[in-house]
UniProtKB/TrEMBL annotation:
Residues 1-19 form the signal peptide. InterPro entries: Entericidin. GO terms for biological process: response to toxic substance. Keywords: Cell membrane, Lipoprotein, Membrane, Palmitate, Signal. GO terms for cellular component: membrane. This is Entericidin.
Length: 50
């Protein structure tokens, strides 16, 4: 019985860890796109005429 509980807890932990990785990867992509927009705006405004 202890082995079954241990395996169930390990499975739940693994699922949580894997879904966390997907969330972090998605957040990283969002931050990257926001950074690209800021960089594009900075390049357009580099001559002082925004």
């Amino acid at each position: 019985m202890k082995r079954l509980i241990t395996l169930a807890m390990l499975a739940l932990f693994s699922v949580g860890l894997l879904s966390g990785c997907n969330t972090v990867a998605g957040a990283g992509k969002d931050v990257q796109k926001a950074g690209e927009k800021v960089e594009d705006t900075a390049n357009k405004c580099s001559d002082g005429k925004c």
